[in-house]
């Protein structure tokens, strides 16, 4: 297996900031599968995907296909897969014996958790984007600003309150689980925690605190 992981470039020293791509990276490292990373610019994701071959993962508001990172290219098999959860499932198949990303047939359950977890972070980008901008390459700034324009409401306080409610809900799931996530599960929350630590000194402390106010 020869894997190339496609991720978005940044101005950070190790370039890693994108939480969705970090999920795929964590899975590759967790299973000990060697891979290289191809850093691409945010506005070029569609162009690059059409060249390499992964399917779109969603639709844009105008109905046209939305291509996203992460996607991986297994050059030995000629397979290209987009979407962090589908990448995790792809990696599981040829190496069933080494640490499992989805133990005890939990792929469906974890996939559902991943969707619901992300759906509850809807306004995180809206309240943090302006602090993120310095870490984006110049090519990505205008592109990202247009995405943010689509997801934020006219009222910043409203976005904060929605985030507070959503994160309180997520906190509730963890409390019911004894205050922790599953010790062995797809690393969605872990990758967002990494994004969170990247936001440290910006809004992250407020986001963490907000569920306790
Ligand atoms: N469900 C997908 C979501 C991936 C996603 O939304 N990626 C964003 C970057 S974090 C992206 O590539 N967006 C491209 C765009 O909005 O044009 C996954 O888990 O991989």
TrEMBL record:
Gene3D superfamilies registered for this protein in UniProt: Glutaredoxin
Ranges for domain GST N-terminal: 8-99
Q: Which Pfam families match?
A: GST_N_2
Top-rank lineage group of the source organism: Eukaryota
- Known InterPro entries for this protein? Glutathione_S-Trfase_N, Thioredoxin-like_sf
Q: Could you tell me what this protein is called?
A: GST N-terminal domain-containing protein
